[in-house]
Task: inverse folding
C-alpha cells in the first residue's frame, strides 16, 4: 500500500471519529496518578539521570505545572481528595486518634469512602462517560467501599498497597480485582519478587489501559480512565526488560517502565486519532518516600523532606497536562493548583455542574489549560497542608506559613524512620510537634524553595505577608465542617480474607474473630 | 527592499563568510563561565521557577552534560584550571598554609598564575586565534599576572571579585580594565547599588562580547571568547529591566539577565552566519554559594551542600555544549567531564597539539560532542575533588569515595557561616576534618545524588567499588608533582592602589608599606 493510500485511509478514519460533534463537548479524561513518585524524579523537573524521555516529551507537547500539589502527604487521603474534589478533613479521610497524624487504608481499616461523598465517575456517568480505574484504589477495601460501588464501570487492580508477601494466617495477601471479583492475590497469582525487584504488573496495568482506550474509542463513547500503577511504591518493581537499565537502581527501573508506559498510552491516543479529544493529566499521590531511599525511594528535587510531611517535599507533585490542540505545547504555568482541581476541571470539561450542596476545594483549571487569564479566585487561591484534622501550613502566592511543624517523633527517628534524611532545618524539621500559630514560620518559596531560610519576624515583609495570610486562614477555618473520620478504627476481621470471587478460585481464607480497636498512627 | 532581495543579500554574506575553508578547521570557541551559579539554577536542570528560557533552548539545540564538574569548589583555582587544563595542585592555585583549605585571589594576594603555566589563549594564538576575556579574571591582579601577559589580546573586566564598596584608605575599590589599563573602579565609575541590587554591568559585558564577535566575524579571523560575567556572585546585581522580574529575588533577576544575554549572543552568532562554526560552552566556576542564600545565592538542585565543599553541590556544574551542525540537537550525555577538558577539547578543535612536557588533567571531549563512541580513557576517567593539596574525594563511574570529609569548622559555623544550610548528613557533613583514607565513605550517585545514604562497608558492592577505586587513586598520587603554591602569601601593599592607567584617570592611591604575611584561609 502506498503512502498516499495510507494517508487517505488515515483521513477517513480521522473523519469518521471526529464526525460526532457530541464527543468534542465530552472529551476523554485520563488521570495518571503515580505512587510515591517525587517532583524531582522527572528529567524535565531536574532528575540528573534524565531517564524519562516520554514524560519530558509529554511536557514539551503540553503544559508543565511546577506549583501543583496533592491534598495530603499520604496515599489514601490524597486519592480520596482527587475523586471527591474535597480536602480529606471534609471527605472523612483522616483520623482523630491522636493530634496531627497521617492515616491511610491498610487492610485492617474499618472505614472507607462514605456513601455521602460524590465521586467524579458518578458525575461523569450522567454525561455518558464510561469510567475505569486501573491499579490502586485505596479508598477502603470492604465491599461497600469498592470502586464499582462508587461510579466506576470497570476496575483492574487492588484495593490496598502491594505490601507482602503475607502468610495467609495472621495476614492475607492483597487481592487483585477484575471488576467486582478478585482474580488472584499479589505474590501468589500476581508475582512480585522482592529479591530481584521483578514483576510484570506495570505491563498488565498498561495493557488494561490500552485495551480500555481501544474499546471506548471504537464504541465512540467518552471515557474517564484513572490509571494508578503502584510500581514506585516500596517494594518497588519493574519487569525484566527494565530491570538494571536505569542509573538509579530499582526505583529508577520502575520509573523508566512507567515512563515507557506513558509514552505508549499517548502514542495510542494519537494512532487512534483521539489525542485532540483527550485531556491527559500526569501527577503523583504524594512526595517521594525518602525513608525508602536510595534504592526504593525517589527524589523531591530541591524541596524539603518527603512523604508524610507538610514540607514541600511531601506535597509538591510533578504535574503535566497534555491535550494537543487545546493546550499550547511547551508551556509552563505557575498557577497554584492541586489534585482536587482535577475533579472540578473534569466536570467543567464534561459540561457537568458541580454539586452545590457541599464545599468543594477543587477549582476549575480550564482557563489555565487554555492559557487565558485566570479569574481572581484562581489567582489568589491558597494551598492548605493538613496532617489529620490539623492545618499545618498554608501557601499563598510565593509565601508559605507553617502553623505547626513536625517531621516525626524522636521515638520513630530512633527506630531509623526518617522522613528528612540528610536534611535538618533547626526549628523547622522538628521532632516534637511544635505550635507556631501565634507566630507562623514563613518562607518565600521562590527565593527559597527548600524552606531553609525563615523570614525574620522583625521584617516588614513578614508582617505584610502575615496580614494577608491570616484572614485566609480564619475564613477557611470558620467555614470548615469536618466529615466523619473514617480512619480511626481497625479490626483484624475486616482484612481481605474472603473477597468476592474467592470461592471460584478456591482462595477464601478463614475470617478471624472481630477485635475492633483504635488504629495506631505514629506519624 | 523586498524579502527576496534580503534573502539574496544574506546568501552573499553567507557565502563570503564560508568561502574560506581555513575557518572550518579553526572553529570559534566561546566559553561562558558563570560565577557561583549552581547546577539547579537552570530550568532544564530543575529550577522550579523555570526562568532560563534561553539556556533551556540552548540545551534543546545542543547537548546537556549532567555529569560536568569544576576542578575546585572555589573561583580562582577553578578558573586557573580551565585555562591551564591542569588541577590546581599542579598549576599552583592552592595553599599549604593549613590542611585542606580553599584559597583564592583577594586583592591582598601576592601570587598569581605562574609564567611556567601555558594558558589556552597562548596556544590558540599560534593558529591565528584572537583571544578576548570579558569579565572576571581572578588569576592574580599584579601586573605580571594580568590576562594580556598570558595570551589574551583583549580584556574588558576586573582582576578580582566585585566586593565593595571600599573606602580607598585601608582598601581600594577593584579596578575595571579595558585591555592593559584601568578605566574605572567598581562602585565608582562602574556602579553597583547594594541597597537596590541595581547595576548595568552585565549589559556592559554583553556589549563587549557582541562587539568582539562582530569584529572578529568581519575580519574573518577565528576567535576565542572567554565570557565571565560575575552578576550571580554576591553582591548579586541586575540592571533595571530585570530587577524584580524573577520569582527568585535578586539572585533570580541576575540569572534572568544572564540568560537573556546568552540568548542574545547565540542569536548574534546565527544572524552573522557563524553559528555552524562556533562551539559555545556554558558552565559555572563552582557550586552555588548557599551561604549567600536565599536572596543572593543559587541552587544546587538535588545535590549536597555548595561552594567551598567537595560534596556534589560544591563541584557539579550546569553544562551545555552548543554547536549547530556539529553537536546533535537535544542530546544528553552522561560522560564524566570537567572544566579542564575545555582546554584540551579546544586545542583538539583548533588542531593544536597539547604541551607534552607536563601532565594535563583535561581530556579531549570531541568524541562526546560528536556523539561517537568515547575512547576507554574517557569512559573510565575519574573525577578528583581537592581542597588545597588534599585529595578529599574521587568519583569513578557512578561511585564516589570520600577520603576526607569537612564542611567547615565549628568556629565558622558559630559565626553563621554554613555551607550546607538545612542539610546535615551524620558522619558526612562533618565540622571537624575527618579522615577516612583507610575506609572511605562511598556513595552511588545514580541512586543517591544527594550523598545521603553511605553504602555499608559490609556489602560486596562496597568491596568491589573500593578495589576498583584504590588503584586509580594510588596511580594519581604516585605521579603527582605539585606546583609551587601561589596562594600562601598576602600583603596589603599589593592591593589595587595604583593599577596601570590610574594616572590618566587621576585615580592612583597611595601604596602602603609592605607587610607580607601568610594568608588566613579558614575553610
Result:
Amino acid at each position: 500500500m502506498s503512502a498516499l493510500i495510507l494517508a487517505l485511509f488515515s483521513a477517513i478514519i480521522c473523519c469518521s471519529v471526529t464526525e460526532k460533534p457530541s464527543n468534542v463537548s465530552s472529551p476523554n479524561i485520563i488521570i495518571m496518578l503515580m505512587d510515591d513518585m517525587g517532583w524531582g524524579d522527572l528529567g524535565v523537573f531536574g532528575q540528573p539521570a534524565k531517564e524519562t524521555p516520554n514524560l519530558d516529551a509529554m511536557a514539551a507537547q503540553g503544559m508543565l505545572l511546577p506549583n501543583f500539589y496533592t491534598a495530603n502527604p499520604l496515599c489514601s487521603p490524597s486519592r480520596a481528595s482527587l475523586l471527591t474534589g474535597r480536602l480529606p478533613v471534609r471527605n472523612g479521610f483522616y483520623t482523630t486518634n491522636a493530634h496531627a497524624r497521617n492515616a491511610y487504608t491498610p487492610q485492617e481499616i474499618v472505614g472507607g469512602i462514605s456513601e455521602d461523598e460524590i465521586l467524579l465517575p458518578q458525575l461523569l456517568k450522567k454525561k455518558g462517560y464510561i469510567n475505569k480505574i486501573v491499579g490502586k484504589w485505596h479508598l477502603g477495601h470492604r465491599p461497600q467501599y469498592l470502586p464499582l460501588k462508587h461510579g466506576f464501570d470497570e476496575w483492574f487492580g487492588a484495593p490496598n498497597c502491594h505490601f507482602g508477601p503475607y502468610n495467609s494466617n495472621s495476614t492475607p495477601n492483597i487481592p487483585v480485582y477484575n471488576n467486582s471479583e478478585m482474580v488472584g492475590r499479589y505474590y501468589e497469582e500476581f508475582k512480585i519478587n522482592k529479591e530481584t525487584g521483578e514483576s510484570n504488573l506495570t505491563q498488565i496495568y498498561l495493557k488494561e489501559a490500552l485495551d480500555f482506550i481501544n474499546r471506548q474509542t471504537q464504541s465512540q463513547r467518552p471515557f474517564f480512565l484513572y490509571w494508578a500503577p503502584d510500581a514506585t511504591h516500596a517494594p518497588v518493581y519493574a519487569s525484566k526488560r527494565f530491570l538494571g537499565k536505569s542509573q538509579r537502581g530499582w526505583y529508577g527501573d520502575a520509573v523508566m517502565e512507567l515512563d515507557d508506559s506513558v509514552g505508549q498510552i499517548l502514542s495510542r491516543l494519537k494512532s487512534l486519532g483521539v489525542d485532540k479529544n483527550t485531556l491527559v493529566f500526569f501527577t503523583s499521590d504524594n512526595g517521594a518516600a525518602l525513608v525508602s531511599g536510595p534504592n526504593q525511594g525517589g527524589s523531591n528535587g530541591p524541596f524539603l523532606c518527603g512523604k508524610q510531611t507538610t514540607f514541600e517535599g511531601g506535597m509538591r507533585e510533578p504535574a503535566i497536562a497534555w491535550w494537543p490542540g487545546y493546550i499550547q505545547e511547551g508551556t509552563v504555568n505557575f498557577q497554584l493548583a492541586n489534585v482536587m482541581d482535577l475533579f472540578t476541571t473534569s466536570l467543567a470539561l464534561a459540561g457537568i455542574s458541580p454539586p452545590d450542596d457541599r464545599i468543594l476545594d477543587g477549582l476549575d483549571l480550564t482557563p489555565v489549560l487554555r492559557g487565558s487569564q485566570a479569574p481572581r479566585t484562581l489567582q489568589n487561591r491558597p494551598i492548605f497542608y493538613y496532617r489529620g484534622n490539623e492545618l499545618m501550613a498554608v501557601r499563598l502566592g510565593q509565601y508559605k506559613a507553617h502553623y505547626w511543624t513536625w517531621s516525626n517523633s524522636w521515638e520513630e527517628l530512633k527506630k531509623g524512620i526518617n522522613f528528612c534524611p540528610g536534611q535538618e532545618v533547626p526549628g523547622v524539621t522538628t521532632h516534637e510537634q511544635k505550635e507556631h500559630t501565634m507566630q507562623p514560620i514563613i518562607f518565600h518559596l521562590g527565593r527559597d524553595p527548600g524552606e531553609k531560610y525563615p523570614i525574620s519576624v522583625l521584617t516588614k515583609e513578614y508582617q505584610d505577608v502575615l496580614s494577608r495570610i491570616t484572614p485566609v486562614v480564619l475564613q477557611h477555618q470558620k467555614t470548615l465542617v469536618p466529615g466523619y473520620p473514617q480512619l480511626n478504627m481497625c479490626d483484624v476481621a475486616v482484612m481481605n480474607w474472603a473477597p468476592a470471587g474467592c470461592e471460584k478460585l478456591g482462595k477464601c481464607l478463614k475470617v478471624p474473630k472481630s477485635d475492633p480497636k483504635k488504629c495506631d498512627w505514629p506519624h
Summary: Confidence is low (pLDDT under 50) at residues 1-23 of chain A.
